[in-house]
Amino acid sequence: MKIDALKIFKNQGEKITCLTAYDASFASVFDKCGVDIILVGDSLGNVIKGDENTLGVSMNDMLYHTQVVAKVTNQALLISDMPYQSYTSAKQTLENAKYLMNAGAQMVKFEGGHEHESSFQILQDNNIPVCGHLGLQPQSVVEMGGYKVQGKGEGDAQRILKDAKALEAWGVKTIVLECIPAKLGKKISQSLNIPTIGIGAGVNCDGQVLVGYDMLGITQNPPKFVKNFLTSGSIVSATNDFIQAVKNQTFPTDEHSFKSV
Ligand code: KIV
């Protein structure tokens, strides 16, 4: 997928599919199955390194996994996460984003809104494509008091919507919305010209992302928004089923979504 296709998909009402991958074998399967985006997520802290959260993921980790995934990603758009504390100033953001792009990423993603205005702007000025990440921000799990649904109250919902609009104005190409009520996911998606990609944000986002291992049922005690697509058959058929379910909007259902207060 080319970056320009993101808006075309949104305008045509075609849902965008995204899976995380961290190694060449899974990335190659997902790419060949035709997933639109492969995300080298900092969730590798949990699923590869066995940590409780993503805070211990380093730039070196992200560079290594981006390089191996990039080798086999031919048709999907490759996005890489900027890890914890790798975008604390505009200068540092630009430097680290350039490293990820040189490692093979076609876009970088980082968490947060208005507090990172200078980082969003320096990447826009330097033509580095950015994916935002609002709602539950796993790198702020301590400040957020755990992995909790965000934007349930009106004030919080308005704050997330305002951040989403600011990110669009700062040239962000797409925004991941994590763990917010489905109603808010729909409202934000309808308020923007750029596509949203939801994870626990309801079926009305413009696309859906899952951690690849969650989609394959490997994760113990998965969150509510996860569906195991590998109930029978192969990894290839599970991946195809995920893609089809997102495209025809049979995933996520209410069972995988959250309500406002
Ligand atoms: O790191 C990751 O896997 C992510 C997804 C949850 C979107 O950011």
From TrEMBL:
Top-level lineage group: Bacteria
Positions of Mg(2+) binding: 42, 81, 111
InterPro entries xref list: Pantoate_hydroxy_MeTrfase (IPR003700), Pyrv/PenolPyrv_kinase-like_dom (IPR015813), Pyrv_kinase-like_dom_sf (IPR040442)
Catalytic activity: (6R)-5,10-methylene-5,6,7,8-tetrahydrofolate + 3-methyl-2-oxobutanoate + H2O = 2-dehydropantoate + (6S)-5,6,7,8-tetrahydrofolate
Residues reported to bind 3-methyl-2-oxobutanoate: 42-43, 81, 109
Top-level class of the enzyme under EC nomenclature: transferase
GO molecular function: 3-methyl-2-oxobutanoate hydroxymethyltransferase activity; magnesium ion binding; methyltransferase activity
Compartments reported by the entry: Cytoplasm
Cofactors (names): Mg(2+)
Pathway: Cofactor biosynthesis; (R)-pantothenate biosynthesis; (R)-pantoate from 3-methyl-2-oxobutanoate: step 1/2
Single GO biological process annotation from the record: methylation
Annotated cofactor note: Binds 1 Mg(2+) ion per subunit.
Gene Ontology CC terms, in alphabetical order: cytoplasm
Keywords recorded for this protein, A-Z: Cytoplasm, Magnesium, Metal-binding, Methyltransferase, Pantothenate biosynthesis, Transferase
EC id: 2.1.2.11
Catalytic residues as annotated in Swiss-Prot or TrEMBL: 178 (proton acceptor)
NCBIfam families hit by this protein: panB, PRK00311.1
Family listed: Belongs to the PanB family.
HAMAP family cross-referenced by the UniProt entry: PanB
Role noted for this protein: Catalyzes the reversible reaction in which hydroxymethyl group from 5,10-methylenetetrahydrofolate is transferred onto alpha-ketoisovalerate to form ketopantoate.
Subunit structure: Homodecamer; pentamer of dimers.
Protein name: 3-methyl-2-oxobutanoate hydroxymethyltransferase
